[in-house]
Amino acid sequence: xxxxxxxxxxxxxxxxxxxxxxxxxxxxxxxxxxxxxxxxxxxxxxxxxxxxxxxxxxxxxxxxxxxxxxxxxxxxxxxxxxxxxxxxxxxxxxxxxxxxxxxxxxxxxxxxxxxxxxxxxxxxxxxxxxxxxxxxxxxxxxxxxxxxxxxxxxxxxxxxxxxxxxxxxxxxxxxxxxxxxxxxxxxxxxxxxxxxxxxxxxxxxxxxxxxxxxxxxxxxxxxxxxxxxxxxxxxxxxxxxxxxxxxxxxxxxxxxxxxxxxxxxxxxxxxxxxxxxxxxxxxxxxxxxxxxxxxxxxxxxxxxxxxxxxxxxxxxxxxxxxxxxxxxxxxx
Length: 332
Hints:
This protein has helices at 14-27, 32-37, 41-55, 61-75, 78-90, 95-102, 109-123, 130-138, 143-165, 183-203, 206-211, 213-217, 223-229, 231-251, 256-279, 298-331; strands at 284-287, 290-296. With 332 residues, it is mainly alpha-helical. Strands 1-2 form a two-stranded antiparallel ribbon. The radius of gyration is 27 Å and the shape is elongated.
């Protein structure tokens, strides 16, 4: 529900009524974005004139919508992605092209270069290297068209932030932000789930428990664990903890807060195991004839993968955290 008043065009007065009437006559409808902007005639006029001016620019309608979809997806604006999905279809974009645009893939190499640039503008807050500008020129964009790409990004950032901040009700066919497959997340999360389930279940066997005795016993952080519980029960506890983390990450697909907890458990585990590179005998070795160079043994390399897993858990916490915030905002 919008955080400020939605102005009914029939009840509007003064400059707001004049602008809403002009919008109705122009596009045959008045979206909720305009109705909320109408609380300020100056804000409504700024948006309408900015949008109108760029619509008369040199970028074609398809590319304008591709940019809007890419920026809206990047900023997490469900209203804008829903709106430009509908508008994009009128501009001639297919369903697949709309999905591709949201991921920064255009209908041509030239359009893809524009979308890549637009997404980087959002990510880097405008601080893009000169090489990115040259990449656009290499694809045939003129300086005027490059200026318009930046202007379109700015226009869409304004509408994105306005709709997100004021929680404007979506009055287009609703499109979920997560309809686009996030390949890096899927690879990271599924890989983490498989590893935790497999490793956790193996630690609950006798060979698995015996295999981690030198790792745990020499750890400055959890050496006490096997002293307190013994190697078999202690290994069962570690295995169950890993399995619980995997289950929580799986639950995170539906309940993001569960995924945050699973990622946090993984962070604690992998931070602990990462330190074992330094504490486990035989993890770092010297090679005869090569001095003073020291190397990680196969055992050390096995442990080093937990440094990468630690980073993956931080990524999962960040991803599920953003999902949790979006979910809470939508439920309010």
